Amino acid sequence: MRKRYGNIFRTSDSIAGEVFHVADRDLVEQMFKWKPTDYNVAEPRQIMEPVVGQASLLLLDGDRHMRMRKLMLPPFHGQAIAHYAELIAQIADREINGWSPGDTVRTRTVGQAITLEVMIRAVFGVSDPGRVAELKRRLPRLSSISPVVLVMQKDLGPLSPWGSFLRNRDRVDEMLYEEIAQRRAAPGRGERDDILSLLLAARDEEGNPLTDKELRDELITILLAGHETTATSIGWAFERLLRTPPALECLTAEVKAGDSSEYMDAAIKETLRVRPVITEVFRSPTEPRELGGYLFEPGAQLAASISLLQSDPDLYAPDPLAFRPERFLEGAPEPYAWIPFGGGVRRCIGASFALLEMKIVIERILARAQLRASRAKDEKVSFRGITVLPGRGGEAIVESVA
Ligand code: HEM
Predict the structure, then answer these.
(1) What is the reported pLDDT for 394?
(2) Is 214 helix (H, G, I), strand (E, B) or coil?
(3) How far is 4 from 18, CA to CA, in rounded Å?
(4) Annotated domain spans of the chain
(5) Ligand 1 contacts CB of residue 77 (under 6 A)
(6) Contact between residue 303 and residue 20 where contact means Cβ atoms under 8 Å apart
(7) CB of 58 shorter than 6 A to ligand 1
(8) Number of Cβ atoms within 10 Å of the Cβ of 295
(9) pLDDT tens figures, 232-278
(10) Is the link from the previous residue into 246 a cis peptide, with omega within 30 of 0?
(11) Mutational pocket test of ligand 1: of 77, 348, 349, the residue with most ligand atoms within 8 Å of the beta carbon
(12) Class of domain 13-288+299-401 as given by CATH
């Protein structure tokens, strides 16, 4: 479409409606620099309301979005999350302990198990083993609800998809409200360092704390936005690395030497470049707005194309489709040419957290196991909802494990 129609082109279908795709670095930079009042993003996301709740950061626009974003940003700051590295490593190690030579593992599934437990312990701050186990069972059922079920909303009893969703959600909510009540009651809560405790202590500019409902909605939002995305990126990292022997060798040598993380950073960036799990981010102008010589009406859906920018031959020459971490060692990409986490005031608040999780999980796996791709062919890029997955889940055979 870009080749045929240029850097802004239109598609229209019965699911997404009319969308104007923007596939030019300069224009995407302009979009990401729009002021918060210049655009909205929440309307097409309202379908998620039964899962994330009305107060979810994902569903807010304008001043209410900025207030909530300011409250949520500090706990996700790079320095604030560094101490989770040990917890992530412990959870990853436990997962790897279950592997034997000859096993077939799907690295995305491994990533899902690890990132889910990290969410429960580091974000929700739950440590009681019974409650961790129950949440591990219940949360994936909440976050993987089918859009069809969300649209239909027909409660035909506890065994029907919507009925079982509602009952599961009620139980998860009950558990989260119990956690929140316990923290509010516990005098030592200032010493806890999980994200829920930090959010409980947060105050807006008028000195108001988050309400229980807001806290619940943001915890589920973090789960929904952060769990699958990070796990899938871990799956893609292995899908690419296991098919690029020089990169795998270089990275494994760096991990085993344990003295630097330069190549690791480059390999993670290159994974998120060639296989971004979210391919576009949407902006809808609040006033008539000019972009690239076109005038867009308020409410028009503009999509900054992450995948087209990150595979643009002008930005990533030569061979933009090749997985070659070295390109990040040779020099930083132009600003706004690497945008897997979006940009501007809607940029992903969990980017540092995701990068840390990816790094530790990949590190633990490469330090302890030797993997090979289950088949030589690249895994297909498969669309699921809003994320893009490796067709076989980043499938690998365990050759050896220590
Ligand atoms: C590799 C993993 C991840 C990727 C690729 C990713 C990507 C994205 C993207 C593209 C957006 C939309 C940005 C925009 O519209 O400009 C976003 C938003 C968001 N992400 Fe992530 N994300 C990841 C992990 C996480 C994690 C781990 C968390 C939380 C711990 C998280 C929390 C959020 C939230 C709350 C938003 C909404 C921000 C807002 O609307 O102000 N994400 N993410």
Answers:
(1) 98
(2) helix
(3) 18
(4) 13-288+299-401
(5) no
(6) yes
(7) yes
(8) 10
(9) 999 999 999 999 999 999 999 999 998 779 999 999 999 999 999 99
(10) no
(11) 348
(12) mainly alpha
